């Protein structure tokens, strides 16, 4: 599934693309008048939780910087659940 988030602030537009199938995310920054690409960063992860965590960190970063977030999602909404593993030692008698 593809998740696209568009963040807009004055002269800059940031687009975050998350591909859950390939476990990849890309961040593209454009200027507003010409819509010219300034910068593009690509992220890959081993697990879906890892790459979704990066996606949410970038979304939060741009929202705290004052960007207006416009989300476009196809499919399900992502929820990240972290489980704490308990280390149990078993004693064999």
Give a short overview.
With about 90 residues, the protein is α+β, with helices and mostly antiparallel strands.
What does the model show?
This protein is α+β, with helices and mostly antiparallel strands. The protein has a single domain (2-73), classed as Single Sheet (q64v53_bacfr protein fold), CATH 2.20.140. The protein is built from one helix and five strands. It has one helix spanning 48-64; strands spanning 2-9, 12-19, 24-31, 37-44, 68-73. A five-stranded antiparallel β-sheet has the order 4-3-2-1-5, with helices on one face. The relative contact order is 0.25.
CA-CA gap between termini: 50 Å
| Unreliable stretches | none
| Domain module count | 1
Reported CATH architecture? Single Sheet
The main sheet comes to:
5 strands, antiparallel
For this structure, the quaternary state is: single chain
Total number of helical segments? 1
Write the layout of secondary structure elements.
Layout: E1 2-9, E2 12-19, E3 24-31, E4 37-44, H1 48-64, E5 68-73
Antiparallel strand pairs: 1-2, 1-5, 2-3, 3-4
Kindly list the characteristics that best describe this protein.
93 residues, alpha+beta, q64v53_bacfr protein fold, 1 helix, 41% strand
């Amino acid at each position: 599934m593809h998740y696209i988030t568009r963040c807009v602030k004055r002269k800059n537009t940031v687009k975050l693309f998350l591909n859950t199938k390939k476990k990849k995310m890309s961040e593209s920054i454009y200027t507003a008048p010409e819509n010219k690409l300034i910068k593009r960063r690509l992220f890959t992860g081993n697990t879906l939780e890892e790459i979704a965590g990066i996606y949410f960190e970038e979304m939060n970063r741009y929202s705290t910087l004052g960007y207006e977030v416009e989300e476009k999602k196809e499919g399900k909404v992502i929820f990240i659940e972290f489980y704490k593993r308990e280390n149990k030692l078993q004693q064999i008698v």
